[in-house]
Amino acid sequence: MSLQAMSPSIAEAPPAAAGPLTPPGSWREPASHFLTVLDSPWYSALVDLQDTITSATVAFWSERGVRFGHLPVTTGSVSSPMGLGSDSLPVKIDLFGAPTYLADSMQFSLEYLCRLAPRGAYYLMPSFRGEAPDATHLCQFFHSEAEIPGGLDDVLAVVEEYLRHLVTELTARHADVIRAAAGSLDHVTALLAADGPFRRMTFDEAVAALEGDPRFVVQEDGWRNLTRAGERELMDRFGEFLWITHWDALAVPFYQRRDARGRVLNGDLLFGPGEVVGAGERHIDGAEVTAALGEHAVPAEEYDWYVRMKTRSPLRTAGFGMGVERFLMWLLGQRDIRDLELLPRVNGSTILP
């Protein structure tokens, strides 16, 4: 399908505004950041982009009969608990004397909603992480998540449809902004003009291509992982929009199902700053979850409800989460994710408003 057929307004988009669109970097001065925002073309454009991402996401899932759930941001069961395979720190709070967590993901709740909504469930809301922010990581970021019936191939395909839908809508409505920020529309036109599914590479193939170079591959007892430099090296060699699938079991959290070889039924999608989307197939029943909790050395108490749910209602589902600000880094050609946050939030700091 031609680019013109997919989105006629892209080729007819108006010329970019005079001069480049650049972020002011005002997050470095959090006390006065909100005042800079009031007069900033960058942040005005960011609000427009966020609005389109929201409306396009709702339209995409509504057309497929996937339901939005109104879910709490507190939980007793984080999806990255302290244990093998977890790559983030949970944010624990005291809620009127009751220890709880701010949600790092709504995956478990979306799995719950899949038992109520046969076509699946989705969510576009904040997630909270305990690590310090850096150029590709925020303490609080917006997470576009969905869970659908089916397996790994099903969810990888729907992620690709969703991304093309988002980019089509964003480019149709905001081509001038994207061009002014990124310097051109080449990256979006290339994505939309490409036919077929994104390229896939297994984790074993990725490690072999990188020759196990310690700059790119972390080697631990029983599992391996990619460094950010490794992600960049793979994109440099094989291109963006590259799926890395079937990771070592102990390199990812306990909730991912395995294939017959013991590799995980999951995939990380690399583009822009690196991993932007994480996807995977979930355990079907309580017995599978119980075994995985033990293998990952995760205390089972906080996940007893999850085991009971899957024992009572076994279901094959798969889901994904996309970091919205990381997606915007790619769309706008930016190098620092902190420029994509309307109001900065840093763990351990009170920032107004």
Layout of SSEs?
Layout: H1 3-6, H2 8-11, H3 30-38, H4 41-63, E1 67-68, E2 74-75, E3 91-95, E4 98-102, H5 107-114, E5 121-128, E6 140-149, H6 152-182, H7 186-193, E7 199-202, H8 203-209, E8 217-220, E9 223-226, H9 228-238, E10 242-245, E11 266-271, E12 274-281, H10 286-295, H11 304-312, E13 317-323, H12 324-332
Parallel strand pairs: 1-5, 7-10
Antiparallel strand pairs: 2-4, 3-4, 5-6, 6-13, 8-9, 10-11, 11-12, 12-13
Helix pairs in contact: 4-6, 10-11
Q: What's this model, at a glance?
A:
38% of the residues lie in helices and 20% in strands.
Structure report:
The chain has 353 residues and is of the alpha+beta class. It has helices spanning 3-6, 8-11, 30-38, 41-63, 107-114, 152-182, 186-193, 203-209, 228-238, 286-295, 304-312, 324-332, and strands spanning 67-68, 74-75, 91-95, 98-102, 121-128, 140-149, 199-202, 217-220, 223-226, 242-245, 266-271, 274-281, 317-323. The chain has an eight-stranded mixed beta sheet. A three-stranded antiparallel beta sheet has the order 2-4-3, with no helix packed on it. The longest helix has 31 residues, at 152-182.
CATH architecture label: 2-Layer Sandwich
CATH class category name: Alpha Beta
Characterize the biggest β-sheet: 8 strands, mixed
Count of runs of 4 or more consecutive helical residues: 12
Q: How many DSSP-defined strands?
A: 13
State the low-pLDDT regions, or none: 1-18
Largest beta sheet: strand ordering: 1-5-6-13-12-11-10-7
**CATH homologous superfamily name?**
Bira Bifunctional Protein, Domain 2
Percentage beta strand:
15-25%
Beginning-to-end CA distance, first to last residue: 47 Å
Mean pLDDT: 93
- Tally of individual domains: 1
